Amino acid sequence: TLGQALLTPTAIYAREILPAARAGLIKAMAHITGGGFVDNVPRALPKSLGARIDVGKWSLPPVFRWLMRAGEIAPSEMVRTFNCGVGMVLVVSRDEVGAAMQTLRDVGQNGVYTVGEVVASPGVEVVNAELWKE
Asked: Which of 63, 21, 50 is nearest to 121 (CA)?
């Protein structure tokens, strides 16, 4: 129900992330809480770098889709305010993506996606947000 979705507690990812961290696969992490991607991802990166997040890489969960419609919230504001179904962003080397994803899946973490990339300019660029308008 909507009530259950809204009352679901924040996930704690320590158990799932620890094996990847111990294997040296993680360069940085951002827990996507209040402030969404726009505020949280840059905190995990050097000031000279940023991120390009592609919202087309995962499905917007129904509770967020409802919230966006009911509140008439623009997709750009959704990613600035909410985690939109992605609670943690891990930064890994391009050549370690597969190993990091498999390590997370091996410990039972479902819903592992490559959601973007690190770029050479500060801030967060969100692409494909128009897909959420459908």
From this structure: 50
Name the token pair of 120: 């050479």
Query: Read out DSSP for 1-55?
Result: -HHHHHHPPPP--HHHHHHHHHTT--SEEEE--TTHHHHHHHHTS-TT-EEEEEG
- N-term to C-term CA, the chain: 22
Give the global pTM. Answer: 0.89
Model pLDDT, residue 55: 93
What is the SS3 assignment for 59? coil
Which sign does the torsion angle of CA 92, 98, 100, 101 carry? positive
Q: Under 8 Å CB-to-CB from 117, ≥6 apart: which residues?
A: 51, 52, 94
Which amino acid appears at position 100 of this protein? A
For the stretch 96-105, pLDDT in tens is 999 999 999 9
Please give the radius of gyration of the chain, using alpha carbons only, rounded to the nearest integer.
Answer: 15
> How big is the chain, counted in residues?
134
Nearest to 38 by CA among 79, 95, 98, 96: 79
